[in-house]
């Protein structure tokens, strides 16, 4: 799993700092944006063009009910998974939280290993959904509609099904993928398809997304394979 962005909305300073410190040590987490209040969390979610991959949201915030924050996040267009952190394990709180748009509940106190397992599971599930939106360089990548949008110019780049699959797999892996593996993932193990087919698609993809296709900065060749610098 490539490094992901997490929005942490938690008013308990000690818990928030502890979570940031421990999650920052996880290879899967690339950036954690902190918000001590519901209002700050909503501001963070609405700022910038890079989408979050998951939101950790405390139920008992000082200014807003976490369920109201969750509803507002969904109203803002946030489609990534939301995991609510709560000191209450009552069925009523769980039901109302899920009805507000949360994907899961984790009851305090919790083990970091358990929380991270749920974080990874929800991110993986979300990446396969039609709601997934990824940041790749200057682009917003929406696999469901096979499109990249340049945030600066609002230019839309339409992709083929195979180009979409290549970007999606490289993004999910976050590391160098050798040609045979990528070929198998995108085309299946079809004897009629060679690595030349893959190289042709990569060439065409670079023509679409690279500022200088001859000197690729996003879809790079490394160690006998390809890596996406997302």
What does this structure look like?
With 230 residues, the chain is of the alpha/beta class. Helix content is 40%, strand content 22%. The strands form three sheets. It has a five-stranded parallel β-sheet, sandwiched between helices. Helix 4 links the parallel strand 4 (82-86) and strand 5.
Gist?
The protein is α/β, with parallel strands linked by helices and 230 residues long. It has 8 helices and 12 strands. The modification 4-aspartylphosphate is found at residue 58.
Kindly identify the CATH topology of the largest domain: Rossmann fold
Which stretches are low in confidence, meaning pLDDT under 50 for 5 or more residues running?
none
DSSP helix fraction: 40-55%
Rough shape?
A: elongated
CATH class of the largest domain: Alpha Beta
Radius of gyration: 19 Å
Secondary structure category: alpha/beta
Main sheet: strand order: 2-1-3-4-5
Give the helices and strands, then pairings.
Layout: E1 4-9, H1 13-23, E2 29-35, H2 38-46, E3 54-58, H3 66-76, E4 82-86, H4 91-99, E5 104-107, H5 112-127, E6 134-136, E7 139-142, E8 147-150, E9 156-158, H6 161-173, E10 177-178, H7 179-187, H8 195-209, E11 219-222, E12 225-228
Parallel strand pairs: 1-2, 1-3, 3-4, 4-5
Antiparallel strand pairs: 6-7, 7-8, 8-9, 10-12, 11-12
Helix pairs in contact: 2-3, 6-7
